[in-house]
């Protein structure tokens, strides 16, 4: 019998037409190891997606979301992604990467190219296909993010 999909809350953090992406740890036990993706994570038992996204972003980059809105839900057989968006009102130097291998601000063209170079990994790493889809959809709906 197939298990129910895992539910996660993820956040599109945007700043002047760029998106903050996380280079996921290169751990084969996680989904999309070594891929660029959005910040967020599992929704804990009894937790709402709204509470989870705030908690996850704080845990992963020590950033308190100033405000956020729901963008949509993207699901497949393994994961249901509750997607939110919020402005990133600080510079990268003010963030503390608590989870993941690297982070960076990427323009939509870089995301759509399918890879992005990480100076920490010292190589180009792939962008998660679902994250490319989500960000392309978001960009089509909200062209001016500044």
Automatic annotation (TrEMBL):
Keywords: Hydrolase
Gene3D superfamilies: Nucleoside Triphosphate Pyrophosphohydrolase
TM region(s), chain numbering: none
Domain Nudix hydrolase residues, every copy: 3-128
Alphabetized InterPro entries for the sequence: NUDIX_hydrolase-like_dom_sf (IPR015797), NUDIX_hydrolase_dom (IPR000086)
Pfam family, one: NUDIX
GO MF, one annotated term: hydrolase activity
Name the UniProt record assigns to this protein: NUDIX hydrolase
Organism for this UniProt entry: Romeriopsis navalis LEGE 11480
Lineage: Bacteria, Bacillati, Cyanobacteriota, Cyanophyceae, Leptolyngbyales
């Amino acid at each position: 019998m197939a298990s129910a999909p895992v539910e996660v809350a993820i956040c599109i953090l945007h700043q002047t037409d760029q998106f903050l992406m996380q280079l996921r740890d290169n751990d084969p036990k996680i989904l999309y190891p070594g891929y660029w993706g959005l910040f967020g994570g599992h929704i804990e038992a009894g937790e709402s997606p709204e509470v989870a996204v705030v908690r996850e972003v704080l845990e992963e980059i020590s950033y308190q979301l100033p405000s956020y809105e729901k963008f949509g839900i993207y699901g497949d057989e393994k994961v249901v992604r509750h997607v939110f968006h919020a402005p990133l009102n600080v510079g990268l130097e003010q963030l503390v990467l608590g989870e993941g291998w690297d982070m960076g601000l990427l323009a939509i063209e870089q995301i759509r190219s399918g890879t992005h170079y990480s100076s920490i990994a010292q190589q180009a790493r792939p962008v998660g296909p679902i994250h490319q889809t989500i960000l392309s959809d978001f960009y089509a709906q909200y062209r001016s993010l500044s």
